[in-house]
Amino acid sequence: MWPCFIKALAAATLATATPLSDFVLKSSSSPPAGWRATGYPSPSYLITLRIGLAQPNLPLLEQHLLQIADPSHARWREHLSKEEVEELSAPSKEALIAVESWLAEFGLDDNPLERTAANDWLIIHNVPINQAERLLNTTYSIFTHYESGRQVVRTTSYRVPAIIDEYVDVVQPTDYFGVGMKALSSSVKIEDTLGPSTTYNITLSQLKDLYGITGYTPSGKNSLVGVTGYLEEYANLVDLELFYETFLPQAANTTLNVELINGANNSQNVADAGVEADLDVQWAGGLTWPIPNTFYSTYGRGQNTQPNISYEDNGNEPYDVFLNYLLSLPSSELPQTLTTSYAEAESDVPLNYARKVCALYGAVAARGVSALHSSGDGGVGNGNSTLACYTPNRFAPRFPSSCPYVTAVGGTYLIPETAVSFSGGGFSDYFPRPAWQDDVVDKYLSTQLKGTYEGLFNVSGRALPDIAAQSVRFAVVYQGQVAHVSGTSASCPAFAGVVALLNDALVSKGEKPLGWLNPWIYSLKDGFNDITTGSNPGCGTDGFNATEGWDPVTGFGTPNFPVLLKQVTPS
């Protein structure tokens, strides 16, 4: 719905259309590896444009966050309300007027328009591609991924009028492709063996014993665990029931709430079951039962339904769509703990979009949500070969785990635990290192690396992972059969389960949940099982090594639940 005054403003400008010379470059990049232009879309092909607006009060939101997340501060865990976060996330009134006037000037004032709760994103539906090209002074192409055959409509650069440049942070879909079909999430493998051992498996009871969870009984009241689902990964409820019957009989007949976002489906055909989704809901639910769990399925990679068109209408993980959905919820419906097992090379995500998504994670954190992400399964490299870097002469940190507002989870295996070779870790090229990391990261750089790999990574970047958990041969039920799955896609719901129990302990006593975890984690003197062996090779190198204290392979290590529980509930 377009306000009448916007249409009036636009009408006043229609007589003098914005000349091309007044456009400024907003973003420009090369297609990610594996993509090539193979044609042009039909001029009438319809897309949904998402415009992220500048948020002048984000520095103030970060100030609040740093206080709320600091255990030594009087405001620790005093999370902000929905209304407070929206006020701090909102664009200026001038920005809204200018941007909506720009859209109207280019003939989009009759298109269906949505605004997010904070008005920081505008979503314009049913935009013909030729109209989007005029709006952004660009040309869209069909790009094909040579391995998967997947096709998307994208451009490699776009522009906006100079008069609104300061008000617009990002426009999508433009230059964010997402990665190829085989690498869309952290590598999840169904396998029978890992190395010489065929007897090493991880079950619920084993993991609970290993991390000291067994003696804790959750109250399950006033708590919620969220599990993120992307890429048409369906959590099969029959698989979940069989998992509970096999590994946690007392949880049999437990229901899973499913929220469908952005037109997502919920196929329960066993052939459509997603191994990632099954893994995540089974382990998050199994570790936290009887705390309720919700599976958030966000549409974003399905085939286009427009007649005679085979290419897709959206990209990879639609992070902004999902996070804005969460932010629209009342606080009573928000999960206290959120686990996400999807990652991609940071360099594949346009910088302005990555920053915008990270700001959304900051807003979610300010609402009291502990968000955890798998750190990736490529070691320091791309996950496909230890001989080549994803980008020449550069390690490959993963996103969104490189965002400082999420907690990045690396991987271990065996007992006693050692770092698993695929554990994603390193240093962000996009986000500077936060002050709460300085002491431990400086120590690692000076005592362990001593200049090794100079030029291959950003010594001043946000370091990851923050912590780790077991990640090899997790027992799951997939398409009706017990299988074994490996990846930091397994370690993330495992550690998230521990965090959910800590939040349960707090909420059951009438206290606020932990919220943003990282400053608290880095303030702790104990509470983790330090991992001192193993490394994460890649790019033709041995990668980083695990060592005493924090390291960019396993972070501070794996959880010691009884100690962490005493940290948050000392009485």
Chain-wise SSE layout:
Blueprint (H helix, E strand, L loop, with lengths): L3 H10 L9 E6 L6 E5 L6 E8 L4 H11 L13 H8 L3 H13 L7 E3 L5 E8 H8 L4 E5 L5 E4 L2 E5 L6 E5 L16 E2 L13 H7 L14 E5 L7 H11 L9 E5 L13 H14 L4 E6 L20 H10 L8 E4 L3 E2 L5 H16 L3 E5 L23 E2 L7 E7 L4 E2 L6 E7 L5 H12 L11 E4 L2 E4 L3 E5 L2 E6 L1 H21 L9 H6 L4 E2 L28 E2 L1 H8 L3
Parallel strand pairs: 11-13, 11-14, 12-13, 14-16, 16-18, 18-22
Antiparallel strand pairs: 1-8, 2-6, 3-5, 3-9, 4-5, 6-7, 10-24, 15-17, 18-19, 20-21, 23-24, 25-26
Helix pairs in contact: 1-4, 2-10, 7-8, 8-12, 9-10, 12-14
Specify the CATH architecture of the largest domain.
3-Layer(aba) Sandwich
Question: What structural category characterises the helix and strand content?
Answer: alpha/beta
Anisotropy-based shape: globular
Number of H/I helices? 14
% residues in beta strands: 15-25%
CATH class label of the largest domain? Alpha Beta
| Number of domains as seen in the coordinates | 2
Mean pLDDT score, rounded? 90
The largest β sheet comes out as: 8 strands, mixed
CATH topology of the largest domain: Rossmann fold
Helix content: 25-40%
CATH superfamily of the largest domain: Peptidase S8/S53 domain
Describe this structure in words.
The chain folds into two domains: 4-55 and 90-177, no CATH class; 203-256 and 273-299 and 317-568, Rossmann fold, CATH 3.40.50. 52% of the residues are buried. It is globular and about 65 Å long. The chain is α/β, with parallel strands linked by helices and 571 residues long. Helix 1 (4-13) packs across helix 4 and helix 8 runs parallel beside helix 12 (488-508). The termini are far apart. It has helices spanning 4-13, 58-68, 82-89, 93-105, 129-136, 204-210, 237-247, 275-288, 319-328, 351-366, 438-449, 488-508, 518-523, 561-568, and strands at residues 23-28, 35-39, 46-53, 113-115, 121-128, 141-145, 151-154, 157-161, 168-172, 189-190, 225-229, 257-261, 293-298, 337-340, 344-345, 370-374, 398-399, 407-413, 418-419, 426-432, 461-464, 467-470, 474-478, 481-486, 528-529, 558-559. The strands form eight sheets. Strands 11, 12, 13, 14, 16, 18, 19 and 22 form an eight-stranded mixed beta sheet that branches. Strands 4-5-3-9 form a four-stranded antiparallel beta sheet. A three-stranded antiparallel beta sheet has the order 2-6-7, with no helix packed on it. Strand 23 and strand 24 form a beta hairpin.
